Amino acid sequence: QVQLVESGGGLAQPGGSLRLSCAASGFTFSNYAMSWARLAPGKGLEWVSGIYKSGSNTYYSDSVKGRFTISRDNAKNTLYLQMDSLKPEDTALYYCASWSTEYWGQGTQVTVSS
To answer: What percent of the chain is modeled with pLDDT above 70?
Structure first.
């Protein structure tokens, strides 16, 4: 069956970095554009970043542009999100998903606090 399993979340200090990974299985990963979204306490789901099937094109929300970098390794069926210059407002549950929203992971918690 289809699985998207996120990892790499945790506690980081403001200004710090984390790298999220999303391991995909059960579907042809290279055929899907992928994305990251997040759900912060008391807020709605926010789309964060997306990447084309080949990785040739990437997209970011204004809130993370210049600080986060999305990438993928189709040979490893893995999606990544490098998060630098983290801010407390980046605290959220981060989800990996197909751009079409057909497939979703269970989420990984990121907390930014001193």
So the answer is: 100
